[in-house]
Amino acid sequence: MASKLIGRVACPWCGFHASHVKESEKCVYTFCPECGVTTHFVREHQRALVLAKMRPDRLAEEPAPAPNPEPAPAPEPVRPAAKPARGRLFSGLGR
Known about the structure:
Layout: E1 4-9, E2 19-23, E3 28-31, E4 38-41, H1 44-53, E5 55-56
């Protein structure tokens, strides 16, 4: 089973504000993507201390399914412009 991201906490080594708190089958651990340090917490009181400082991760929660958007109405068909009548422009003048 892969580790599951359960929250975020400040890194104790570099101070990065959003290091990952992950849970595996064996223990809880933190991983800082900024400095690369991984710290494992094996004992139950260590686990409780980390979980007390941790804030939930927004991305770790299941996102709500997005509602299906309603299809846009079909646009009206474009009708070609009427052609001008053919014939003399000044019919009947001057004759």
